[in-house]
Amino acid sequence: EYAKISNNGNIGSSAFSGCDGTIEYAKISNNGYVGFYAFYGSDGMESVDITSNGDIYSEAFQDCTSLLTANVMNSGSIGSYAFEGCTTLENLVLGENVGSLGSYAFSRCSSLKEYEVPDWIPSMGPYCFSNCISLKKMVVGTGIEQLAEGTFKDCSSLQDMTIGVNVGSIDAKV
Q1: Distance (Å, rounded) from C-alpha 145 to C-alpha 72?
Q2: N or C end of the chain, less CB within 10 A?
């Protein structure tokens, strides 16, 4: 089942929350934000493509436990817990206009094996990639100036990390 959402406004809070098995692929093109809990817990959604001119609010895709691929090309920030608990997420693409990554934004994405934070991302909140237990390789782009507390906490498989040259501050318990 495919959901194509094209509108000139926002996708409101909890709009598609809990749509278990009814949406496998979502293509979102809008001129507004993706609201709090918009797709929260939508089991069965395997892929999402987002092209919007607004932020992805907190918990928007939290606990979408079947999500394999997220292509995010929005021109805003990704809120706290936005993709937290997407335990099958393997493929993550963040476009050139994506802003900061909120706290716990990709926490508990336990199938993510490697990731390179693009150079244009200006900041990552605390615990952004925490508990990504399959994460083996991470490259932190040159746009990041600080690694916040707990950014990679409990990433028990992490073996290879490259930190961008502009990181001037590393908080405790990264």
Answers
A1: 22
A2: N
